[in-house]
Design goal:
Layout lengths: L2 H39 L8 E2 L3 E7 L3 H15 L7 E3 L6 E5 L4 H4 L12 E7 L4 E9 L5 H15 L9 E2 L7 E2 L4 H9 L5 H12 L8 H6 L7
Parallel strand pairs: 1-6, 2-3, 2-4, 4-6, 7-8
Antiparallel strand pairs: 5-6
Helix pairs in contact: 1-6, 2-4
The structure holds zinc ion.
């Protein structure tokens, strides 16, 4: 059989198979991104918060070259998700502060975190009465090292952009604020080595910034409204 006919015979099969697979993945993502947004973006299920002014990221303390590369990479990951809000790394005059200081005073002074046994990070937001973010401080525990340190940093960075809550559901799509269903151990290894902000967090940030949804919207109201308006 001439080669040209072989190609012709195989091509329809390959293209049908590909389109089915892509549409399944897209269906899962479309369903999961709205559910994930609802779980992570509403504070106490009653309101939203986001930056309405340029975001200026500033690092403090004993950060390494790798830490700075991770910060720059996170900024690039979300740059196109933030709609009209610009984001940049600055040396002073910042409003989103990442603290890599060696002292534990921030952790020990906080009643909430005093008895925590394991090293961790946390994010402290300052909001105005309209729930717009005016300042955010991310604290990274000095005992955190390597991959774990940067995973904590990416997690807190998502909080600092307005994804204030956590997700309790398990998702097939990779994310930083909830649980993930891994199809096999190599998918888990891929996740561990991924230095980027995952797709589900990026989609939630996009929905928060690009939909222009009012910050006074409650989760209940969001459910009532036609969700398709925000997709
Ligand atoms: Zn958290």
């Amino acid at each position: 059989m001439p080669i040209i006919q072989l190609v012709f015979l195989f091509f329809p099969f390959v293209s049908v198979f590909l389109s089915v697979r892509i549409s399944n993945d897209m269906d899962i993502l479309n369903h999961e991104k709205t559910a994930y947004f609802e779980e992570t973006a509403f504070y106490n299920q009653s309101w939203l918060s986001r930056w309405e002014a340029p975001i200026k990221v500033q690092c403090f303390g004993n950060y390494t070259v790798e830490d700075k590369i991770q910060v720059m990479s996170m900024i690039e990951d979300v740059r196109n998700d933030l709609g009209t809000i610009p984001i940049q790394l600055v040396n002073d005059g910042g409003n989103l502060f990442i603290h890599f200081e060696d002292d534990l005073s921030h952790f020990n002074n906080s009643e909430e975190f005093k008895n925590q046994q394991i090293p961790f990070g946390y994010m402290k937001p300052q909001l105005n009465r309209n729930h717009e973010l005016l300042q955010a401080d991310i604290y990274i525990h000095p005992a955190l090292k390597g991959i774990k340190k940067h995973e904590v940093l990416r997690h807190e960075f998502c909080h600092s952009l307005g994804l204030m809550s956590h997700s309790s559901r398990a998702y097939y799509t990779e994310n930083l604020l909830g649980k993930i269903i891994f199809s096999n151990s190599s998918a888990y290894d891929d996740y561990k080595s991924n230095q980027h902000i995952p797709i589900l967090d990026q989609e939630a940030i996009k929905m928060l910034y690009q939909s222009q949804i009012s910050l006074k919207t409650s989760k209940k109201e969001f459910d009532r409204m036609n969700r398709n308006n925000f997709l």
